Amino acid sequence: MNKKNKGLFILAALLLVVNTYYYILPYFTKSTKNLELVASDVSINTSDLIKSYQNNENKANILYNEKIVEVRGFVKEVSFVNNRSTVLLYSKDNSSGVICDVNKSQIKKIKLLKEHQEIIVKGICKGFLKDVVLLNCYIDLNFNE
Amino acid sequence: MNKILPLFLLLTFLTNKETNKNQFIARQGQVSFFSYASVENIEAQNNQVLSILDIKNKKIAVSMLMRAFVFKKDLMYEHFNESYIESDIYPKATFEGDILDFDTSLSNQTKIIRGTLTIHGKSKNIDIKTKIEKKAKTFILSGEYNVLVKDFDIKIPPILTSNIAKIINIKFRFQYQPYEE
């Protein structure tokens, strides 16, 4: 292989690697990444997050939707409806809450949760219906330590 | 968007305790859709769909966040929200309807729900055949429905038409609980 061909070969290989990384791999990546080691964009308590949506939903959508939100609140209940693991956080001064759809890696922690326990949940905020919806959540039980 | 207002009104009615006995809520309703196409099949599931069932007035209201649909691949999610549904402009899909000939005393029945489905800011009157189960003090509603993509003004670039079916199959299952403040 002469020098010119070698250069072309390296260039072609480089292009292949770059294209695979940016265009092919996204087809196979799953949207359920563990957020444990990912820094949150916003840290807030349940009550303030709900009030923010109730006061101005459009503004809150811009502030929180698709962001990694770390929310501090109290456990209302744990549910396994539709084979999903879900933690509902309540707010003391509001009938709305936060629905946290929990990442599979957190199932052991879910079983330890008790009603009224204070926890921190980190998840991707999707918006507000009657409750704020967080998906792919990671639970922090030892935030005081 | 104007279809969301009646849902909020319905939620406001829920604050009246007298009506609460007749109101049921599903905060974690499940809605999934399936697109069968030659290039690839696309499916997604939303497990946080809100629905209110009023057994006295035989009405149902449903609201869901489009961004809460979970896909197998990130790229599908991105195309769905950014190119087709335009979730930043139309973040929710809603349905409001009447359950025809609903008999609350029966434990199992299949009825037609007649109402308005709003997706991508476009509304369409539809009839959905729905199975209604009554278990203890709760209700479970389930069924499926086929929607035409063109009915909701969803634009698919010509180059991608073979990737997405013209008819999308939607399945739903709502497990209700008595409404509590």
Describe this structure in words.
The complex is a heterodimer of chains A (145) and B (181). Chain A is α/β, with parallel strands linked by helices and 145 residues long. Chain A folds into two domains: 1-30; 42-140, OB fold (Dihydrolipoamide Acetyltransferase, E2P) (Beta Barrel). Chain A has four helices and six strands; from the N terminus they run αβααβββαββ. Chain A has helices at 3-24, 46-55, 57-64, 107-112, and strands at residues 42-45, 68-79, 86-91, 94-102, 118-128, 132-140. Chain A has a five-stranded mixed β-barrel with strand order 2-3-4-6-5. In chain A, a hairpin with a 6-residue loop joins β2 and β3 (86-91). In chain A, α2 packs across α3. Chain A starts with a helix and ends in a 5-residue tail after the last strand. In chain A, 33% of the residues are buried. With 181 residues, chain B is mainly beta. Chain B has helices at residues 4-13, 17-20, 74-84, and strands spanning 23-35, 42-54, 59-65, 70-71, 92-99, 108-119, 122-135, 138-148, 167-175, 177-178. Chain B has an eight-stranded antiparallel β-barrel. The model of chain B has no long low-confidence stretch (mean pLDDT 88). Chain A binds chain B through residues 26-32, 61, 65-66, 79, 81-82, 84, 86, 88, 95, 99, 101, 126-131, 133, 135, and chain B through 11, 25, 27-28, 30, 47-48, 50, 63-65, 67-68, 70-75, 77, 88, 91-92, 173, 175, 181.
Indicate the topology.
The complex is a heterodimer of chains A (145) and B (181).
Chain A: H1 3-24, E1 42-45, H2 46-55, H3 57-64, E2 68-79, E3 86-91, E4 94-102, H4 107-112, E5 118-128, E6 132-140
Parallel strand pairs in A: 1-2, 4-6
Antiparallel strand pairs in A: 2-3, 2-5, 3-4, 5-6
Helix pairs in contact in A: 2-3
Chain B: H1 4-13, H2 17-20, E1 23-35, E2 42-54, E3 59-65, E4 70-71, H3 74-84, E5 92-99, E6 108-119, E7 122-135, E8 138-148, E9 167-175, E10 177-178
